[in-house]
Amino acid sequence: MAKRIQFSAIGGPEVLQYVSFQPPAPAAGEVQVENRAIGINYIDTYMRSGLYPTASLPSGLGTEAAGIVSKIGSAVTGIKVGDRVVYAQSALGAYSEIHNVPQEKIALLPDAISFEQAAASFLKGLTVYYLLRLTHTVKAGETFLFHAAAGGVGLIACQWAKALGAKLIGTVGSDEKAERAKQAGAWATINYQKEDIVARVKELTAGEKVGLVYDSVGKDTFERSLDSLKPRGLLVSFGNASGPVEGVNLGILTQKGSLYVTRPSLNAYITTREELKTASDELFSMIASGAIKVDVSEAQKFPLSEARRAHETLESRSTQGSSLLIPGK
Ligand code: NDP
Question: 140-264: CATH homologous superfamily?
Fold first, then answer.
C-alpha cells in the first residue's frame, strides 16, 4: 500500500483527503515513479474547485513530480529502474508516493539537478519556455508585461527574460513580492494592489505601452492587459488565478487597436517525446548554468499529508515562487 491525496467531491481545499491505496502495476508504455518531491501548480486548484472538469470522482490530483523509477512497463524504452526522473502533464495523481506515468511525459534528470529543484521548476519552466520562445519569440531589448511575476511561473519568467536580455515589467501583489521579482531579474515592477497598471506601463515606456502582455491572472486584469498594449499588440492569456475571462465581445480588440489575443496551453505546445526533450534540455541547461535558480523556502515545502494547507496557502496569495509536497516528510 502507498499514500496519496484524493478528492471525492469538487470544492475548497477541505475536500482533499490523505488516503491509502494499492498502486496498480504500470501499463505497457508506463513508468512507475517513487516520487521524492511533488510540484504544486495553480491548475491543481482549478481541478479541485471544478473550474476545469475532472473525468471521474474520486480522483487523484497533481500532474508533476520528480523521483526514482521503481518499475517499467513492457514497451518502455530508454528509461530503466533506478533512473532519476521528472515528469509533468501526467494524468491526475502525482500528489502520491507512487505514480504511473506515460513514458513520453518523462525526462531523465541530470545529476546536477535535485528532485526538489526539478519538481519546483519542470512544469513551470516548460511553460515559460513555450510562452517566451514559441507563443512569441521574445527578443533582446524587447519590453513586455508579465502578471503575477513573483509566483512560481513568474519568478522563472523573470530570470528567463533577463537571460534573453529582455525587459520584463512584472505585476505583483505586494512590495515584498516586487523586491523578489526584481532580484530574479524583472526590469521593473508594478504593485497592482496600489498602482495603476496602465499608467505605470505608459510611464515606463515613455508613453508607448508594450507590444506583448502575458496574463495568468485572468478576469481581474484582462481589460487592463488590453489597455497596456500598443496597436496590434499581443495578449497571451494563459491562466485564471482570479477567475476565467468570459463573455468577451471581439469588437473590443478593434476598438483598442487591432489587438491579438491567444489562449495557449502547455499540452498544445509540448506533446511528443521529441518536443519534451528539446524543451527540457533547454530548461535544464538554464538551471545548470545558474541562469535560473529555483529555491523553495522551507515554509513552502509541505508534507504530502498537508496538501489541504498547501492549497490554502497558495490560494491566499501569500506564496512566492514554487511550492512543493514532500512524501514521507
Ligand atoms: P502562482 O505561484 O503564480 O500563484 C498564483 C498567483 O496569482 C498568486 O500568487 C497571486 O500573485 C496571483 N493572483 C492574482 N489574483 C489572484 C487571485 N484572485 N487569487 C489568487 N491568486 C491571484 O501559480 P503558478 O505559478 O502555479 O501558476 C501561475 C499561473 O500560470 C496560473 O494562473 C496557472 O493557471 C497558469 N499556468 C498556465 C499554463 C498554461 O499552459 N496555460 C501552465 C502553467 C501555469 P500576486 O499576489 O502577486 O497577485
Answer: NAD(P)-binding Rossmann-like Domain (3.40.50.720)
Predicted pLDDT at 57: 95
Protein fold of 2-121+272-326: Quinone Oxidoreductase; Chain A, domain 1 (3.90.180)
Q: Which residues pair with 84 in a beta bridge?
A: 68
Which residue, among 92, 29, 39, has the nearest Cα to 67 in the 3D structure? 39
pLDDT in tens, 226-257: 999 999 999 999 999 999 999 999 999 999 99
| Stated pTM of the model | 0.98
Round to whole Å and give the CA distance between 91 and 62: 8
* Protein residue whose Cα sits closest to atom 9 of ligand 1: 317
Q: Compute the distance between CA of residue 18 and CA of residue 58 in angstroms, rounded to an integer.
A: 12
Instruction: Determine contact, residues 88/271, Cβ cutoff 8 Å.
Output: no
Q: What pLDDT sits at residue 220?
A: 98
Q: Predicted ipTM?
A: 0.99
pLDDT of residue 32: 98
Average of per-residue pLDDT across 150-162: 98
Cα 213 to Cα 201: distance, rounded to the nearest angstrom = 11
Mean pLDDT of 111-126: 97
Query: Which protein residues are within 6 Å of ligand 1, measured from CB?
Result: 41-43, 124, 127, 148, 150-154, 172-173, 177, 216-217, 220, 238-242, 264-266, 315, 317, 319
Q: Locate the domains of the chain by residue range.
A: 2-121+272-326, 140-264
Cα gap 329→210, rounded to integer Å? 45
**Helix (H) or strand (E) run with residue 313 in it:** helix 307-315
